[in-house]
Design goal:
This protein is α+β, with helices and mostly antiparallel strands. It folds into 3 domains: about 140 residues, no CATH class; about 110 residues, no CATH class; about 180 residues, Alpha-Beta Plaits. The strands form 6 sheets. Strands 17, 18, 19, 20, 21, 22, 23 and 24 form an 8-stranded mixed β-sheet that branches. Strands 7-15-9-10-13 form a 5-stranded mixed β-sheet. Strands 8-14-11-12 form a 4-stranded mixed β-sheet, with no helix packed on it. Helix 3 crosses helix 4. Bound molecules: zinc ion (ZN). Zinc ion binds next to loops.
């Protein structure tokens, strides 16, 4: 349940923080949604589901949620989600602590990768200081109780819950410092597991032959903050008791079940979720959270990122012709046009290098649309100011998110290629690489524009500086059509 006075106070904070950026009506919808949500559900708030249920466009929902994090209404977490079961392997309050390479899900006995655009879910939860803690009632099926350890985007059916329940032999809650026992009769040639979501660890037990008349066994197991300490993980198929002592410093739930690996019944379905890439490509996120501490060692993969580079044509001539003050004004106005076009296509400016801009997008079509918007806006503006040209290059590919000068930047050959392709462009031209052009939405859009005589496309094979293999690139010239 929500503590109303605290919540209302924080909402006032949200109103003043987001005064121009978020519609007041949306905050009122958010207020009602949160009150209802807190009363009925315990899992995280998913911005896509919020958007679907309230009819507020996703872009506005993301702004609302990000400002709510600033207003201490919501907490943000970076979850490493297991693609096989939907379990949250671990959640982190910053991007820093995401494992660099892969992570292990003990339920599925499998590794998952940590690409920011795959199974890294950014989730939002209500800040605990405005909630009255409610102990969830435990039904006979312990897996219903454990839903908080699964991503809020996981859809687990009743059938799946029943399957899990049938594989479960027992469970026990243990307070810190206490000891609890769990007994059961195992079968021969089986693997069993004891696990705890709180410490995110497990121990397997393999049974050997069914020993007739073998004496009951007692296993003494100590649970610390990261693991189960148990000397002998092999056992006979005879009466077994686990004596579990909790030294983890927190209350833990220990579940005893059959080994789950390979259970196709576990395959959950997923609702859309906000992944790390989409969040990093939000201009608002970069602006609101830019001073958050980012680890110097940050290095996370993105399987696919759309990268834009732009530069002003002959800016030295511009400064020579107009003088520093006038030229500087024009350059700044051009930055404003770019920022606006990039933001409105859900991209973010990563950095500016002199007059050049590097921006990233979630997908090639957004980067293409933004580029067309920029060229059209600059063309229109040019009519009033005279000779001013912009050169744009786009590429799509794998890259590495790193910390550079306390902001998240991207490295990799895809980034280098994007910069080099930009270098091929003339004034108000867009050059794109093959991965961009081959994207089905980009292709469809360009064919349509070609048919309408809005664009001319020319193919080139280019040898880019510093790139060994020659690249197929496309020169796009946009023809202004009367509005
Ligand atoms: Zn799993």
């Amino acid at each position: 349940m929500i503590k109303n006075d605290i919540f209302e106070n924080k909402l006032q904070g949200l109103h003043s923080l987001s005064s121009t950026a978020v519609d007041t009506k949306h905050i009122e919808t958010f207020r009602e949604y949160v009150l209802n949500f807190a009363a009925n559900r315990s899992t995280g708030l998913n911005p896509y589901i919020f958007s679907e249920e309230t009819g507020i466009p996703f872009r506005d929902v993301l702004s609302l949620f990000l400002f709510s994090v600033k207003a201490d209404i919501l907490n943000i977490a970076w979850n490493q989600v297991c693609p096989d079961c939907g379990g949250i392997h671990s959640n982190h309050d910053t991007i820093n602590s995401i494992d660099r390479d892969s992570y292990f899900c003990f339920l599925c006995d499998s590794y998952a990768n940590t690409a920011l655009d795959e199974w890294i879910e950014v989730s939002f939860s209500l800040n605990r200081d405005m909630l009255t803690p409610v102990e969830k009632k435990i039904s006979s099926n312990i897996w219903e109780y454990t839903e908080k350890y699964f991503s809020s985007c996981t859809i687990m059916s009743q059938k799946q819950l029943n399957t899990l329940e049938n594989l479960t032999h027992g469970f026990t809650f243990i307070e810190p410092g206490e000891t609890a026992s769990m007994s059961f009769l195992p079968e021969a040639d089986q693997r069993y597991m004891l696990f705890s979501f709180e410490i995110n660890n497990y121990v397997y037990f393999d049974t050997t032959i069914k020993a007739q008349n073998s004496t009951p066994r007692i296993f003494d197991i100590e649970i610390n903050s990261t693991q189960f300490n148990c000397s002998s993980p092999a056992m006979h198929a005879a009466d077994t008791t686990f004596r579990l002592t909790n030294r983890s410093g927190q209350k833990v739930l220990v579940i005893l079940s059959n080994y789950l690996h390979g259970r196709t019944e576990l395959e959950p379905r997923f609702r859309p979720f906000l992944n790390g890439k989409t969040l990093l490509n939000s201009q608002l996120f970069r602006t609101l959270f830019r001073y958050d501490r980012i680890s110097q060692n940050l290095s996370l993969t993105l399987r696919s990122l759309s990268i834009l580079f732009s530069d002003i044509k002959d800016s030295t001539i511009l400064f020579e012709k107009l003088g520093d003050v006038k030229a500087y004004e024009l350059v700044n106005r051009h930055f404003e046009i770019l920022m606006q076009c990039i933001d409105s296509r859900n991209g973010a400016v990563v950095k500016t290098i002199g007059d050049a801009v590097m921006a990233t997008f979630n997908n090639p079509i957004d980067s293409l649309e933004a580029s067309i918007d920029i060229i059209r806006a600059i063309n229109k503006w040019q009519e009033t100011i005279g000779d001013f040209g912009i050169k744009i290059g786009l590429n799509e590919g794998q890259s590495l998110a790193v910390n550079l000068n306390d902001t998240i930047d991207y490295f990799g050959q895809s980034v280098n290629i994007a910069a080099r392709v930009q270098g091929l462009a003339n004034a108000n031209e867009l050059w794109v690489t093959e991965p961009v052009l081959n994207n089905s939405k980009v292709n469809k859009k360009l064919i349509q524009m070609e048919n309408n005589k809005e664009v001319q496309i020319k193919k080139h094979i280019a040898q880019l500086k510093g790139i060994i293999e020659s690249q197929t690139v496309y020169q796009l010239n946009f023809i202004d059509v009367p509005e």
